[in-house]
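User: Here's a chain of 284 residues. Predict its fold as tokens.
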Amino acid sequence: MNAFHTFWSRPFCMAHPGRPLSVTDFDLFCTILSALEWRRIGGSIRMITDRMGERYFRAYGLDFLWDGGIDCILDAVPYQVDPSTFWAAGKLYALGTVPAPCVMIDTDFIVWEDLADVLDGAELAVIHREELNPDIYPDPGTFVCAEGYRFPDGWDFSQPACNTALCYFGSESLRRDYVREALDFVQSARGRHPLHYMVFAEQRVLALCAAQHGIPIRSLSELPDLFSPQTRFTHLWGYKQLLSRNPAERGRFCRRCAARIVSDFPDAVSHCRIHPLLRPYFPE
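Assistant: Prediction complete.
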């Protein structure tokens, strides 16, 4: 099953002007395991990024992760798209280039078990649904958009949102319509908020389009599963905040990831040792 990762460097560049691109050790470990585990269970995966992202991955010997290669298409994201508001817009532009059937996987998401049987026959599957907490998903009427922009007739705004940390598209027509409507909103938005606009474009528009198509949404887990021991999936999600603040927990997490790579993917160890952030976790 074909999957893709996305890495868009422009949000980092806007947040850290003049600084060379950097990625945390725990994010790197999760990206590595996400790609390798997907390939282990029989899938193929590629990275969709921009020239800066490609240079980073190749410079540190990480390009081996993606057997489907690295594609640099995200330089084409229009500069009118605000990276601080639409920090995950790269996913939407990447999805616009990948026909169904396909799997979109965040780099902080790991799949440990084969999903072929779970996804069989699905037109759309997401990791889980989310209730419309107004602190995260405010009334769409509050959004400030370009004059003339209108939400499509028939959208049912009561639909729970779709978390797309992992998202499977079996329907090509839904993939096309979702990308079109999501990017139409992204390019029409004039308001700024570091969460509300992005999660509407990414997570609510998908549910709205699926409902309009009459396509059932298959959930692969429930939200509470993220707070219990994870066996089928691992999603760093909010755990990254703890890892950023707590050096001891960060070290424990990275050592566990390194040990998993050593045991399950020994051929990858030499590649991982190239990166100075990862090398200490792989003693000679």
